[in-house]
Every structure is written in C-alpha cells, then in structure tokens.
Amino acid sequence: MKMFVQNKVLFMAQAAMIAAIYVVLTLLGASFSYGEVQVRISEALTILPVFTPAAVPGVFLGCLISNILGGCILPDIIFGSLATLIGAVFTWMLRNKSKYLAPLPPIIANMIVVPFVLKYGYMVPLPIPFMMLTVGIGEVISCGVLGLILYAALNRYRGLIFRTTA
C-alpha cells in the first residue's frame, strides 16, 4: 500500500513539474509561442513521455494553462491542448521504438489541428496547407530538433531523474 501511494505522489509531482516548466518556457518565449508561425520552446518537452508516463498529463496541463494564460480563444485552448495530449499519448506508445520516431506524434498532431484553429478560430486569412507548413516547421524545430537535444541530455540520467519509486 505504501509503495502505491509513493508511486502515485511521485507521478503527480513529476506531472506538475513538467506542466510548470512547460508554462514557464511558453510564457517566457511568448513572442514566438503563439500565431501562424510559432516555435514553442516548451514543445521540446513533448519528448518526455519517452521517459515517464507522468509527462502525458504534464505536457497536456502545461499546454492548457499556457493557452489560458496566453490569452488564447476557447477553441485554441481546447483543441490546441488536445493536439498536445494526442501527441504525448502517441509518443508514450512509441517509447520503446527509435528515439527519432518520438517527436513525430506531436509534430503531426499540431500540424493537423493548429492550422484549423488559426483559420476558423482566429480567422487568419492564410490557406490551411500553408499554415500546416509553417506550424509544421515550428514543430520540427521545437519537437524534433530541441526535443532530441533534450532527449540526448536526459537519456544518460533517465534512471535517476525519472525513477518510478521514491
């Protein structure tokens, strides 16, 4: 019983820390975290489900809070956050595959969802395929490049940082 409670507390603490880091990184880089061309440095954290399942709710809540605090409209708060959740879930599912596959789910999810939010929520007059390209490039930079750099930095210490018991 004690081990179960410790694991549950550790899971919640890891999720909360990841969410907090996501929010801070998004708001610090707010000038390029929102809009048609966006590179959210915080999206690099979408690689973390490879290390811990706590990252799934962590990045989702971080994105949700960032979108609320960033002044996003309701469809962006809902669907943008869901895109990050979908990406995190599929990254978790790919955790035992190649590290190069891990950034793909959040890139693809955001590339598909965010342009529709921009077009129909914010009434951005650009064509959806063009916004898929611009959002996709931003996601490749943040999830692909920065995410893999983060992966390389954390992988050496994964047992220490992301242990499953207290």
Short description:
With 166 residues, the chain is mainly alpha-helical. It contains 6 helices and no strands.
Question: What does the model show?
Answer:
With 166 residues, the chain is mainly alpha-helical. Helices cover 67% and strands 0% of the residues. It has helices at residues 2-28, 55-69, 74-93, 104-120, 128-155, 158-161. Helix 2 runs antiparallel to helix 3. The longest helix is centred in the last third of the chain and has 28 residues, at 128-155. The protein is globular and about 50 Å long. It starts with a helix and ends in a 5-residue tail after the last helix.
**Chain oligomer state:** single chain
Which structural class is indicated by helix and strand composition? mainly alpha
Order of helices and strands: HHHHHH
- Helix percent reads 55-70%
Query: Which word captures the global form?
Result: globular
Largest sheet, in brief, is: none
DSSP helical segment count: 6
The overall average pLDDT, rounded, is 90
Low-confidence stretches: none
Distance between the termini: 14 Å
Global Rg = 16 Å
User: Per DSSP, what share of the residues sits in E-state strands of 2 or more residues?
Assistant: under 5%
How many β-strands, per DSSP? 0
SSE blueprint:
Blueprint: H1 2-28, H2 55-69, H3 74-93, H4 104-120, H5 128-155, H6 158-161
